[in-house]
Amino acid sequence: MKDMIGYCGLDCEKCDAYLATVNDDQALREKTARLWAELNNAPILPEHINCEGCRAKGVKTVFCENICEIRKCALNKGVSICGDCSELDTCQTIKAIIENDPSALENLKG
User: Fold this and answer.
1) Residue 1, pLDDT score
2) What pTM, to 2 d.p., does this model score?
3) Which of 12, 14, 33, 82 is least surrounded by CB atoms within 10 angstroms?
4) With 70 as the cut, is the pLDDT of residue 87 above it?
5) Residue 27: enclosing H or E segment and its boundaries?
């Protein structure tokens, strides 16, 4: 399993927060902060857009570190990724991710 696949199956290497962090791209941080603030109706600022991957050691966005219910659940259950959980097929917590991005399920089962 690729280290940069998140608990939910999304590829962290394709995430704008990750890309902004590893490339120190302030314009991408600003663009991502505006988009995420609008989508989440939350005060997300460019300085919040720093992440090295949700399963990797290092900095994470506030959402990934403290709010993401999928990450919290995986850590609580002690699974390295949701694909290792026996409840994956019926899980309501991860359902929206899988429906919106079928590659996430492929990553979890791959």
Assistant:
1) 52
2) 0.85
3) 14
4) yes
5) helix 26-40
